[in-house]
Amino acid sequence: MTIEEAKRRTLRLADLESAVEEVERVLASGYERRGNWSLGQICRHLRLTQDASIDGYPRWMSLFAPVRPLFRVLLLPRLLDGNSMAGLPTVSIYVPSEDSEDAIEVDEYKRSVKRFWEHKGTFHPHPGFGIRERDSLDRFHAAHAAHHLGFLKPSRDD
């Protein structure tokens, strides 16, 4: 187990509804930061990556398409099982700014989740995994949220 993994609490979120409940809980209770990002930064990152499922990813990210089968076999199951690797670099366009305010970003994240569920069109394939079905994306984005939110320890356990 790496140092980053030791700092992270075990968190499983079944879907985006659960992710919204968790960010609201963390915001209400306060938290101890055990990773690099605040709640606001995490929510901004999650929103940016989630919105890309609807709005599209940068074209250059399609370069990952040839390795999708390998990523789906090796990395996706780990992420979905709550055992994703910590410390991997984030693509710069999805790195949140330091000035992200928790309450504002939680509200923006909740709007993004609502937008995801109200979206009637097709979804863009994830650059690394190729996922594009709503239910699979819901599970993927919830696991991604659990990974990042695991680095925040709520001040009280409800």
Shape: globular
CA radius of gyration is 15 Å
Low-confidence segments, given as residue ranges, are 1-5
| Largest sheet geometry | 2 strands, antiparallel
CA-CA gap between termini: 27 Å
Number of helices: 7
Number of strands: 2
Helical proportion? 40-55%
Protein model, in words:
- By secondary structure, this protein is mostly helical.
- Helix content is 51%, strand content 4%.
- The chain has seven helices and two strands; from the N terminus they run ααβαααααβ.
- A two-stranded antiparallel ribbon has the order 1-2.
- The longest helix is centred in the first third of the chain and has 17 residues, at 39-55.
- The chain is globular.
- The two termini are 27 Å apart.
- The relative contact order is 0.28.
- Residues 1-5 have low confidence and may be disordered.
